[in-house]
Amino acid sequence: MENIALVVGATGITGSNLAQELISNGWTTYGLARNPNTNISGLISVKADLLDVENLEAALEQISPTHIFFTTWMRNDTEEENIKVNSALVRNLLNVLSPKKSIQHVALVTGLKHYLGPFEAYAKSGALPETPLREEQPRLEYPNFYYAQEDAVYEAAERDGFSWSIHRPHTVIGYAVGNLMNMGTTLAIYASICKETGRKFIFPGSFAQWNGLSDVTDARILAKQLLWASTTEAAKDQAFNITNGDVFRWKWLWEKIANHFQIDFEGFENEMRPLEKELQNDEELWKNIAEKYNLKENKLSRIASAWHTDLDLGRPIEVMTDMAKSRKLGFTNFQSTLDSFTDLFEKLKEEKIIP
User: Fold this and answer.
1) Cβ contacts of 93 within 8 Å, gap of 6 or more
2) Catalytic residue selected from 113, 175, 195, 224
3) Residue 217 and residue 243: Cα distance in Å, rounded?
4) Contact criterion met (CB below 8 Å) for 279 and 193
5) pLDDT for 35
6) What's the pLDDT tens digit per position in 308-345?
7) DSSP of 104-165, one letter per residue?
8) Looking at the predicted structure, is the pLDDT value of residue 38 above 80?
9) Residue 122's pLDDT is what?
10) Any idea where the PRISE-like Rossmann-fold domain is (predicted)?
11) pLDDT at residue 126 tops 70
């Protein structure tokens, strides 16, 4: 039977890498987004608004997917709004497709906020989670839109009889055409600014992150796990952590990144020095850099997400995940984290995003 994938959020870093993985494995792949990506060869674009049921029904009228991959979310001002909006994204789509009876598997990508709490709740409870983070750790008492999204999947699975998988990456690193808002790109932009101006490449985060063990998730290895879980019987109806498979300390990786760009760096010194503050006056500077090197994007706010990088690197504990669960079930892919970053930097250079 033909595998027909619907990738929800196909313009994002996770969705676009997944779409390429599915297409290369012979899947018929539809990419749903409000502003579809037409840059991926073989991807069939679907323009739809997940919050508009009538629009969604019309857009999906001729499409009967066997596999759904949710790789997107919408950022709102409060976690209560996040819960309302992001659970609706999932529920609306599964409700619209329910009458077709075509769905075999639904995969949902969430993240480590499942264990750490929502952005505004990091480290405020006084009871920090035990690391390495493991899938069996219970939900927190905090409101969390990931839980609401999971529950929407569970409800629909019970109603319609499909299997599911939940995927919890750490920070996702990789390249996405037209969507550059991630830590890897943000650090590349910052390093490029430092190189151009002679400024030092200053670590913005906490002592715990600088000195503690950490891991990240390459978008390419996340795509491989999503494909594996959706086609492996033993992986069905399970939640999985997904990281590259190695661990590092930022004090090691920060120097490696600085060396790649041939710039001077500073590590953690007494206090956090947020990147958002460091870049706050650099819009005009980036415009000039973009003009000088003929870069594709001259608006800094469209390619650097300093606030998100600050949240990741500002955590007061070391954060790493346990990968034993999927390893035991047969998922053995591995990715070097240093290669994740350097591959991305070279791609950004090649695509004229950085000098």
Assistant:
1) 8, 50, 56, 68, 70
2) 113
3) 4
4) yes
5) 86
6) 899 899 988 899 999 999 999 999 999 999 999 999 99
7) -EEEEE--THHHH--GGGTTTSS-PPPSSB-TTSPPPSS--HHHHHHHHHHHHHHHH--EEE
8) no
9) 53
10) 66-355
11) no
State whether 158 and 209 are in the same domain: no
Number of domains, the chain: 2
Give 187: exposed, middle or buried? Use CB within 10 Å, 0-12, 13-18, 19+: buried
Q: What is the pLDDT of residue 280?
A: 95
Looking up tokens 């600085």 gives 258
Catalytic, 113? Answer yes
In a domain, 324, yes or no: no
Q: Which domain holds residue 205?
A: 180-214+247-316+336-351
Q: Is the pLDDT reported for residue 23 higher than 60?
A: yes
Among 146, 175, 190, 195, the one annotated catalytic: 146
* Nearby residues of 145 by Cβ (< 8 Å), 6 or more positions away: 73, 79, 82, 83, 85, 86, 87, 118
Does 242 reside within a domain?
A: no
At residue 309, what is the residue type? T
- CA angle (236 as vertex; 13, 163 as ends), nearest 5: 85
